[in-house]
Specification:
Layout: H1 2-19, E1 40-41, E2 50-60, H2 67-86, E3 90-92, E4 95-105, H3 110-122, E5 128-130, H4 135-148, E6 152-154, H5 160-163, E7 174-176, H6 181-194, E8 200-206, H7 210-226, E9 229-236, H8 244-252, E10 257-261, H9 264-276, E11 283-285, H10 293-296, E12 306-310, H11 317-330, H12 336-355, H13 360-367, E13 383-384, E14 389-390, E15 396-401, E16 404-410
Parallel strand pairs: 2-4, 2-5, 5-6, 6-7, 8-9, 8-10, 10-11
Antiparallel strand pairs: 1-2, 3-4, 12-15, 13-14, 15-16
Helix pairs in contact: 2-12, 3-4, 6-7, 12-13
């Protein structure tokens, strides 16, 4: 992250030195800014320095059931935009751009996602769109990205967003910037099996949540192919507030661990009810176990005996630096979603720089092979052009015990190698 911002700062300092200052005390780089995708000559000075505004769109759940994730993501993106602009902007081609983030609320509704995407491109004229962690919203937007010819780079982990229903057709404008649902599902369940010694797995799956279904299906396939016993598979809906029946069924079936594939609200509810039932077995599953999950549980005892995968350790210097900025700007602690929102901007800017243009299709082409980006979650982000998903991202295992997050180790099973 620091390496990328240092590059932006060096470019900005060169620009300011070349531009000089105008008679009213403002630098020439502060004049003549225009909308995304266009350029202008600066208002004064003989060197003709070009400046512009690079508009980046963002679609997140800000008021729906996933708002705790969406707000954190937008906060992260806003921090990245602020950092880059305060460093002097970013040089793309022969023009120095400041960044502008335009974000809309999809309200957990796929139709709202489509409408927001259309508005961002057709009205706001953004060059790239950053997407939410909601795979159902992303799946609904696939055809619209093709019609609008705009790259949609999101946190949506369902591989069908990138590879189609049968995982055999690359969607040209859809990109993922974190581990896929399949990868995280396998990493989560394999840790309980191979490191914790669990042998009988029970599944609780939000059947109306695309990411959770894909994550659980990958974990189920892992169990079937490695000979791990599945004692039961129970389903719920995202809006459900009572999962005691499903949990009791898994308890009576003899499950010695639970794979809980649910988004934040039902994940919290089911974890509280699991504790109320005295069903004290290890639990893994959703990435939504990451902060602030533990603080949303009924009591500390509920948030215990949980092991989950995270995109990075909270203890890295880059994450700690981001947390300080988040506290100062929003009076909120940074979460993994904050880091992902921050990183989405860094990757988008790196693609624009590689393209040497703010043209939407040029950025799409560059994003397909963007590599070596220094971000919060990794110092070497690389996109796989064949899948539009990141290559080689490590994950970090966290334990939650009495509401406290305890970092354990990096983990990837031989099954994925």
């Amino acid at each position: 992250m620091k390496k990328v911002l240092a590059v932006f700062l060096a470019a900005a300092m060169f620009c300011l030195a070349a531009c000089g200052s105008s008679g009213d005390g403002t630098t020439e780089a502060e004049t003549g800014t225009v909308s995304a995708g266009t350029e202008s000559q600066s208002g004064s000075g003989g060197d003709g320095e070009k400046t512009g505004v690079l508009k980046i769109g963002a679609i997140h759940d800000l008021t729906g059931s996933g708002s705790v994730l969406g707000i954190a993501s937008v906060n992260g993106s806003e921090l990245a935009v602020k950092d880059i602009n305060e460093a002097g902007g970013v040089v793309i081609g022969d023009t120095t751009y400041t960044l502008e983030l335009v974000s809309y609320d999809c309200k957990s509704d796929p139709n709202e996602g489509i409408s927001s995407l259309q508005r961002l491109v057709q009205v706001d004229d953004v060059s790239i769109v950053l997407g939410p962690s909601l795979s159902n919203v992303a799946l609904a937007c696939v055809e619209t990205t093709n019609e609008l010819e705009v790259a949609f780079m999101g946190q949506f982990g369902d591989p069908r967003c990138m590879l189609g229903e049968n995982l055999d057709t690359l969607n040209p404008y859809m990109f993922l910037m974190q581990p896929s649902a399949a990868q995280s599902g396998i990493q989560a369940i394999s840790y309980l099996v191979e490191k914790m010694g669990c042998e009988k797995v029970g599944f609780l799956i939000a059947q109306d949540h695309a990411y959770c279904v894909s994550q659980a299906n990958a974990a189920i396939e892992y169990c079937e192919e490695t000979g791990v016993e599945i004692v039961g598979i129970e389903y719920n809906n995202q809006a459900d507030l009572d999962m005691k029946t499903q949990l009791t069924n898994l308890q009576n079936a003899g499950a010695d661990c639970i794979f809980n594939a649910n988004p934040t609200q039902p994940l919290t509810v089911s974890t509280n009810q699991k504790n109320q039932l005295g069903f004290d077995v290890p639990q893994t599953g959703s990435l939504d176990f990451s902060s602030p999950f533990a603080s949303l549980c009924a009591d500390e005892a509920s948030a215990s005996n949980i092991y989950f995968v995270s995109n990075c350790s909270y203890d890295t210097p880059d994450f700690q630096e981001l947390n300080e900025k988040c506290m100062a700007e929003f009076n909120q602690e940074a979460t993994i979603k904050t880091a992902l929102g921050y990183d989405q901007v860094l990757i988008a800017v790196a693609a624009a720089q590689a393209a040497g243009s703010t043209d939407r299709n040029a950025i799409r082409d560059a994003l397909e092979t963007v590599s070596g980006v220094d971000t919060v979650i990794t110092d070497d982000f690389n996109m796989d052009p064949e899948t539009h998903m990141p290559l080689g991202l490590d994950v970090f295992i966290y334990q939650i015990e009495n509401g406290e997050y305890i970092g354990l180790e990096s983990w990837s099973p031989d099954y994925l190698k």
